[in-house]
Automatic annotation (TrEMBL):
Free-text cofactor note: Binds 1 heme b (iron(II)-protoporphyrin IX) group per subunit.
Name of protein: Peroxidase
Biological classification of the source: Eukaryota, Viridiplantae, Streptophyta, Embryophyta, Tracheophyta
Record organism: Protea cynaroides
InterPro entries in alphabetical order: Haem_peroxidase (IPR002016), Haem_peroxidase_sf (IPR010255), Peroxidase_pln (IPR000823), Peroxidases_AS (IPR019794), Peroxidases_heam-ligand_BS (IPR019793), Secretory_peroxidase (IPR033905)
One MF term in the entry's GO annotations: lactoperoxidase activity
Gene Ontology cellular component list: extracellular region
Catalytic activity: 2 a phenolic donor + H2O2 = 2 a phenolic radical donor + 2 H2O
């Protein structure tokens, strides 16, 4: 072999080695989530979370539904990073003020209780983003739904995205095309959309989020034609025109607090509460119809799909590795942040 070809070989070997090093560095900074993440640092994390939720559910049957929704609204805005939990401060514009969240999302006090319990057992270890992922799973199990292995190791954001919370979270009056697009934007497919919508097998919704279907659907002056007429009458009685928009209705009129596949049989009998629910079955020719029918006739298929889709949702852009994010000590505050909301002009002037 000539010295020339030896030279070529060694420089290409070097290039390959550099490339491998670069790829391994990249992988290192985007570490994968891991079911065993807290095995040594907080081995009882799951049972601690479960205990707090179980206690809270004694006085608030709806708490599990509210907690899984927090995980969903967290993950859809720049990934599952606990950003939804941050309160207003001098540096933070809270996502709690976004349209899908304001006067609607709940359960923050229970998240704080979970955090306190965890800080007592394993201080500074478990992120608020992971608390939401675990709480979602424990809530589903508590209501009789499937269990799955929650992947862990998310870190908490030090920022929020109020605009993102207003635009990225799907709205109840959106059509199927928009729902599919919003799920696709975060890497979730049509099956994920149908199975995750099955979380509406428990919990409540306020009249204001579906009243447009009851009296003047799409400015037609008539109710949504895809609403079962008996169900329509019941809902009209609960939510009269000009009445209190925050009155609550069961998302699943059949088994309001249990986690089962009745959500899908409700859709088949035109008893989906939100337009976004009924769209999955009533949009003519939609690919979602056969998925609804499958889940309606086969609860095991729904449970298996739901579990996988929850893992998929929990994988949306987590912050991992030591370079990004932090482990918040208080889920409402970035570490070192202050809890005051607005400093008045007087305070600013007088302290300068
Ligand atoms: C497909 C798009 C979705 C839309 C348009 C939507 C919309 C809504 C709306 C409007 C409410 C009622 C809020 C209120 O009236 O205060 C609600 C409640 C709820 N949502 Fe969704 N949602 C969607 C997907 C999901 C997903 C993916 C999950 C979880 C995996 C979920 C879980 C829940 C739960 C459990 C409740 C009841 C919460 C409670 O009782 O506090 N939703 N949703």
């Amino acid at each position: 072999m000539s010295s020339f070809s030896l030279k070529i070989m060694s420089s290409s070997t070097l290039a390959i080695a550099a490339l491998l090093l670069w790829v391994s560095m990249l992988r290192g900074s985007t570490a994968q989530l891991d079911a065993n993440f807290y095995n040594t640092t907080c081995p009882n994390v799951l049972s601690i979370v479960q205990q707090v939720i179980s206690n809270a559910s004694q006085t608030d049957i709806r708490i599990g539904a509210s907690l899984i929704r927090l995980h969903f609204h967290d993950c859809f805005v720049d990934g599952c990073d606990g950003s939804i939990l941050l309160d207003n401060s001098s540096t933070i514009q809270t996502e709690k003020d976004a349209a899908p969240n304001v006067n609607s999302t709940r359960g923050f006090d229970v998240v704080d209780n979970i955090k306190t319990a965890l800080e007592n057992s394993c201080p500074g270890v478990v992120s608020c983003a992971d608390i939401l992922a675990i709480a979602a799973q424990e809530s589903v199990v508590l209501a009789g739904g499937p269990s799955w292995t929650v992947l862990l190791g998310r870190r908490d954001s030090t920022t929020t995205n109020l605009t993102g919370a207003n635009t990225d979270i799907p709205a109840p009056s959106e059509n199927l095309t928009t729902l599919i697009a919003k799920f696709s934007a975060v890497g979730l497919d049509t099956t994920d959309l149908v199975s995750l919508s099955g979380a509406h097998t428990f919990g409540r919704a306020q009249c204001k989020n579906f009243i447009n279907r009851l009296y003047n659907f799409s400015s037609t002056g008539s109710p949504d034609p895809s609403l079962n007429s008996t169900y329509l009458a019941t809902l009209q009685q609960l939510c009269p025109q000009g009445g209190n928009g925050s009155v609550l209705a069961d998302l699943d009129p059949t088994t309001p607090d249990g986690f089962d596949n009745n959500y899908y049989s409700n859709l088949e009998s035109n008893e989906g509460l939100l337009q976004s629910d009924q769209e999955l079955f009533s949009t003519s020719g939609a690919v979602t119809i056969s998925i609804v029918s499958n889940f309606s006739s086969n609860q095991s298929a729904f449970f298996a799909s739901f579990a996988q889709s929850m893992i998929n949702m929990g994988n949306i852009s987590p912050l991992t590795g030591s370079q990004q994010g932090e482990i918040r000590l208080d889920c409402k505050l970035v570490n070192g942040g202050s809890s005051y909301i607005y400093e008045s002009t007087y305070d600013l002037v007088s302290s300068s």
